[in-house]
């Protein structure tokens, strides 16, 4: 039986005035409070209640994490709990970053090894290269590889960060309306990276679009939505909140108990 859940995935760095990009994704060193400042309580409540349509009197099941890749394990728990069903998630991803793998090498493992495996064997990824491991910056690409994602909305920060990885988009276009993982051999990916090395982005993108994969994973509807245009399409079954300390100032921690007012800790 097909079972679909609606997930609101919130990263605390969304509620900071500027996006920070230079941290290691699992860092615990906080960004400077002189430059990076949290939203006010009023701004935060307004977004949660008028855009996400949350109500503190109607808490939604969910969880709190320090690092964002823990959401991958949480989704797996839910999937395994409903092992007799085909479970997928409609995800509204509220974050300063796409978490689809821009800036790391996870796509090499996903494209050349992981999606070549039977689907249920993908639930426990084990790349041999530590630069390709599951991380806060790529966990959604890994969730796509497990076919847990039915649709994904990336609600982008007011600072307009958009770091979608083109290789994971249908036809390599981040405005195509779909994500679609592609299978390659490791040799092909190594060859592609050699070609791209040193090329300007525009020329590298032309080369990328000519690459023919071995096979394609199912298309997943994908939208990039400016924060002020976002309106939840319905109620949520789960909410995840992640602190992401390497991308947030310590002052933003004051918003955590506020956001947790909308969440009932549960699986």
Which short descriptors sum up this protein?
267 residues; alpha/beta; eight-stranded mixed β-sheet; globular
Low-confidence stretches: none
> Beta fraction of the residues?
15-25%
Major β-sheet annotation: 8 strands, mixed
Helix count, per DSSP? Answer: 7
What shape does the CA trace take?
globular
What is the arithmetic mean of pLDDT? 91
Helix content: 10-25%
Kindly report the spatial arrangement of strands forming the biggest sheet.
5-8-4-3-1-9-2-10
Specify Rg, calculated over alpha carbons: 18 Å
Quantity of strands, as a count: 10
Helix-strand string:
EHEHEHHEEEHHEEEHE
Which structural class fits the helix and strand makeup?
A: alpha/beta
Task: Note down, in words, how this protein is organized.
This protein has 267 residues and is α/β, with parallel strands linked by helices. The protein has one domain (2-159, 228-265). 22% of the residues lie in helices and 20% in strands. It contains seven helices and ten strands. The chain has helices spanning 41-50, 70-81, 106-112, 139-145, 186-196, 201-208, 256-260; strands spanning 2-11, 60-65, 86-94, 149-156, 178-179, 182-183, 215-216, 220-226, 238-242, 263-265. The strands form two sheets. An eight-stranded mixed sheet has the order 5-8-4-3-1-9-2-10. The longest helix is centred in the N-terminal third of the chain and has 12 residues, at 70-81. It is globular. The two termini are 20 Å apart. The model has no long low-confidence stretch (mean pLDDT 91).
